[in-house]
Amino acid sequence: MALYFIDTEKKGDAGHQVHREGCPQLPEKDQLYFVGSFATVKAAYDVSPLIYSPASYCPQCSSTAA
Ligand SMILES: [Zn+2]
Description:
2 helices; single chain; 4-stranded mixed sheet
């Protein structure tokens, strides 16, 4: 399990990016919303659009996710 966060600020066409804890691209804490603790990036991504939409994976941390 890992903790996932979503950027509260839109990043252009990518929308709100979903990050895993420890991602080097993680925004400042005041621009983060805690999504929850999930086993996979996909599980986190399934609920992220319910919080902020549109949402997308962060390319930096999603590629290393199981
Ligand atoms: Zn990231």
